[in-house]
């Protein structure tokens, strides 16, 4: 069994690496050992970059021993969703079409993390081309939820491999991409933290697109602080725009924070277990001195629908040449979903882009009444693979999709478990560039609860 | 016309040829998309609002004309 250090959060292991108490080489090797032991059950990785990871860890160790410590990510083993380009390491987007794709250049976001000393341990499994939420990948294997000993439940998606790998302590943190919730949903389903930042806060350059105007790159980690540390090293925008910064601050007090609850939306589609966990979380916020404010806004369903339309139109446009030339190379569900995009008229796509502008204005008014808006992250705890029907699958991003259309930051933090022991996530959304506020609030909630300390049985 | 035939007609416009049996299987998805379209068409958007592609601009200035 890998040593205890693989379970430690980045915030605790980084000082030990800095003080030379922990060797990055030993840490990376321990994660590789864990992958070797259990990933045949999870299929959370498409490519494990063992040799590269050891080489990078040795380099980190050498630098640290010579007094050149780069910061909190130096020598930390990280995984990337296999849609993020890595120079010399194949990047498949979970597809057969790109099975032999070896990029010449790193994606901008990985350049940043690598320059901060992050070690690439591997490329994670995902729903093909990020177009789906089960991570039931027909080409690289079905990624399983580490909380389900039977292996029958989805890890969420499309960044399901990143969610499963982080939850199972196979890496310290990972990146995913989020077009309608693909960072937050697997974070919720795997019992970890996922952040979708403000649109364009993190560069998408070198990330294979699904939907250009909805795609975001976001961090996934076992604690709020770790996810914030990752995001802090990923930012590609003027930090002056961030009134709360990114990292949780010691002086943040949740008392008086106004948490908005959109009437008729937060409980419109979630099952009783998700609803119960969410309401307990609200009670915890209440005890922390937050003010729960009910908000009247009747258009969330329609905003969600607009996001779906923008998403499928852009995805079908990107994929059209491949659909025409290599239709058989797609898995059935993705090919069929992309075909649906041909049936939507251009004027409806354009209308939905205008709806986005309208919706952003509506949300500015909502954020005048509340500092953050809370909701469940998913409609139900991670379902079984065979429990997702095509038409139901279209609505699976009901709670997460609106934040993508709006471009506002949103995160998922664990808030409980189902009676079957499957994690449940709470979503907090904030106004543009105010991810720091949601992060601080989530960090305070996490400190008041124990959910983040639970590890899946596969780690035992 | 039956829903699956409407769907097939749409696909034919774009020269997407798939078996009728598959078209029938996918018809619930097609109907869901039609429902999304119906829902979004009910949002009356002010004439001044542009279909900005750049959310960065929207985030800073709101959804109306930048000028």
Description:
The complex is a heterodimer of chains A (460) and B (67). With 460 residues, chain A is of the alpha/beta class. Chain A contains 14 helices and 13 strands. Chain A has a single domain, classed as Amidase signature (AS) enzymes (Alpha-Beta Complex). Chain A is 39% helix and 14% strand. Chain A is globular, with a radius of gyration of 20 Å. The mean pLDDT of chain B is 81. In chain B, helix 1 crosses helix 2. Chain B starts with a helix and ends in a 6-residue tail after the last helix. Chain B contains three helices and no strands. Chain B is mainly alpha-helical. At the A-B interface, helix 9, helix 10, helix 11 and helix 12 of A face helix 1, helix 2 and helix 3 of B.
Provide a short characterization of the protein structure.
Chain A is an alpha/beta fold and 460 residues long. Chain A contains 14 helices and 13 strands.
Q: Which features does this protein show?
A:
heterodimer, A: 460 residues, alpha/beta, Amidase signature (AS) enzymes, eleven-stranded mixed β-sheet, two-stranded antiparallel ribbon, 13 strands, globular, B: 67 residues, mainly alpha, 3 helices, 0% strand, elongated
List the helices and strands and how they pair.
The complex is a heterodimer of chains A (460) and B (67).
Chain A: H1 10-18, H2 24-42, E1 45-48, H3 50-65, E2 77-81, H4 108-115, E3 119-124, E4 136-137, E5 141-142, H5 160-167, E6 173-178, H6 184-190, E7 193-196, E8 216-221, H7 224-234, E9 258-262, H8 272-287, E10 291-295, H9 300-326, H10 332-340, H11 346-369, E11 372-376, H12 390-394, H13 401-406, E12 410-417, E13 423-430, H14 435-448
Parallel strand pairs in A: 2-3, 2-6, 9-10, 9-11
Antiparallel strand pairs in A: 1-3, 4-5, 6-8, 7-8, 7-12, 11-13, 12-13
Chain B: H1 3-13, H2 20-41, H3 55-61
Helix pairs in contact in B: 1-2
| Regions with little confidence, pLDDT below 50 for 5+ residues of chain B | none
What multimeric state do the chains show?
heterodimer
Radius of gyration of chain B: 18 Å
Query: Number of helical segments of chain B?
Result: 3
């Amino acid at each position: 069994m890998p040593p205890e250090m693989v379970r430690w959060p980045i915030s605790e292991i980084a000082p030990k690496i800095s003080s030379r108490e922990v060797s990055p080489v030993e840490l990376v090797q321990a994660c590789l050992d864990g992958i070797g032991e259990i990933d045949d059950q999870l299929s959370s990785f498409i490519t494990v970059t063992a040799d590269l990871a050891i080489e990078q860890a040795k380099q980190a160790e050498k630098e640290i021993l010579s007094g050149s410590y780069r910061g909190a990510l130096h020598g930390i083993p990280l995984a990337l969703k296999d849609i993020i380009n890595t120079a010399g390491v194949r990047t498949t987007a979970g597809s057969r079409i790109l099975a032999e794709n070896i990029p010449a250049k790193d994606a901008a976001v990985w350049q940043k993390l690598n320059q901060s000393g992050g070690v690439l341990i591997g490329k994670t499994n995902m729903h093909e081309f990020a177009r789906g939420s089960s991570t039931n990948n027909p080409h690289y294997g079905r990624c399983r939820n580490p909380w389900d000993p039977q292996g029958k439940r989805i890890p969420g998606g499309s960044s399901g491999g990143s969610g499963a790998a982080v939850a199972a302590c196979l890496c310290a943190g990972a990146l995913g991409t989020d077009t309608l919730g693909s960072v937050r949903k697997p974070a919720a389903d795997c019992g970890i933290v996922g952040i979708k930042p403000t649109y364009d806060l993190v560069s998408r350059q070198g990330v294979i697109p699904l939907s250009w105007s909805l795609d975001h790159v976001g961090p996934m980690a076992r604690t709020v602080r770790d996810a914030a540390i990752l995001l802090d090293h990923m930012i590609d925008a003027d930090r002056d725009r961030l009134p709360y910064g990114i990292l949780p601050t010691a002086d943040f007090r949740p008392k008086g924070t106004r948490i908005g609850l959109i009437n008729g939306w937060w409980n419109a589609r979630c099952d009783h277990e998700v609803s119960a966990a969410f309401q307990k979380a609200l009670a915890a916020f209440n005890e922390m001195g937050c003010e729960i404010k009910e908000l009247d806004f009747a258009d969330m369903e329609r905003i969600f629908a607009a996001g779906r339309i923008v998403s499928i139109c852009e995805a079908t446009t990107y994929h059209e040449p491949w659909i025409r030339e290599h239709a058989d190379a797609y898995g059935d569900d993705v090919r069929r979903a992309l075909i649906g995009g041909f049936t939507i008229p251009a004027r409806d796509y354009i209308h939905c882009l205008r709806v986005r502008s309208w919706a952003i204005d509506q949300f500015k008014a909502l954020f005048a009444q509340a500092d953050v808006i809370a909701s469940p992250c998913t409609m139900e705890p991670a379902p079984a693979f065979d429990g997702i029907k095509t038409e139901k699958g279209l609505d699976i991003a009901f709670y997460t999709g609106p934040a993508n259309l709006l471009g506002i930051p949103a995160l998922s933090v664990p808030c409980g478990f189902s009676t079957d022991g499957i994690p449940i996530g709470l979503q907090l959304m904030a106004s543009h560039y105010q991810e720091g506020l949601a992060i601080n609030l989530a960090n305070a909630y996490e400190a008041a609860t124990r959910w983040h300390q639970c590890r899946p049985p596969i780690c035992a | 016309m039956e829903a699956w035939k409407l769907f097939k007609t749409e696909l034919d416009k774009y020269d997407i040829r798939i078996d009728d049996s598959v078209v029938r299987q996918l018809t619930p998805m097609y109907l869901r998309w039609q429902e999304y379209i119906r829902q979004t068409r009910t949002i009356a958007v002010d004439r001044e609002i542009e279909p900005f592609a750049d959310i960065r601009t929207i985030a800073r200035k709101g959804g109306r004309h930048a000028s």
